[in-house]
Hints:
By secondary structure, the chain is α+β, with helices and mostly antiparallel strands. The chain folds into two domains: 11-132, no CATH class; 148-207, CATH 2.40.50. It has helices spanning 11-21, 27-31, 33-36, 43-49, 57-60, 71-76, 83-96, 109-113, 121-127; strands at 148-152, 162-163, 170-171, 176-179, 189-190, 195-200, 203-207. The strands form two sheets. A four-stranded antiparallel beta sheet has the order 1-7-6-3, with no helix packed on it. The radius of gyration is 22 Å and the shape is globular. It starts with 10 loop residues before the first helix and ends with a strand. 25% of the residues are buried. The protein binds iron/sulfur cluster (2 copies).
Amino acid sequence: MAQRYMLGANWKATARIGASACDQCSFCTEFCPRYLLGHPIEPHKAMRSLGYSMVGEANVIGTLFCCECNLCTMMACPEDLDPSKVCVQNKRRLMSEGRKWEVEAVATRPELHLDNRRVPIGRLIRKLGLADFKNKGPLLEASLMAKRVKLPLKQHVGAPAGAVVKVGDAVKCGDVIAKPAENQLGAVIHASISGRVKEVSDAIVIEA
Ligand code: SF4
Ligand code: SF4
């Protein structure tokens, strides 16, 4: 496996190596799931911006759409560069400046490309150097019964869920114990065991 020499490098090294070694092949963009969904993110253009003394906002404004999946760095780049870090760095700066998504998505791009750009998991495993750890078993069947669970109210994007149970309530496995406020992005949280609510803070503790 090629050495992932960019991983763990500081920003200055990432930017300097990226500026000198990126050949603008655009594989990072071609693999980017956000690009394939039609969003105006093109990591190879963010890499291009490294070669200039001024960023060139048109090259990086789309980085606001980066979901930080790391696929461009871990899978796509044949030079082992770190386009993900370059996108995230730009995204953080744009967000701190209060910039918003300003470019429309290309609605036809998913139809054209998505089916042909799926990442083979076996190849990703090899590329990440994890093939030696792939082990199918033997697996043992076992039933584990938790006596106590702690379920954080924030385990998703958006706002933390609001508890709909209080200390002392009896809950059954599957009951809704927290949900997002109206018109807020979030996730409903369910009890994973039956029992009694012991604590409600930034997490709900249930004991069987
Ligand atoms: S880390 Fe960002 S730029 Fe890279 S593939 Fe994922 S979404 Fe695209
Ligand atoms: S895949 Fe690598 S070499 Fe190609 S454009 Fe992206 S960062 Fe540059």
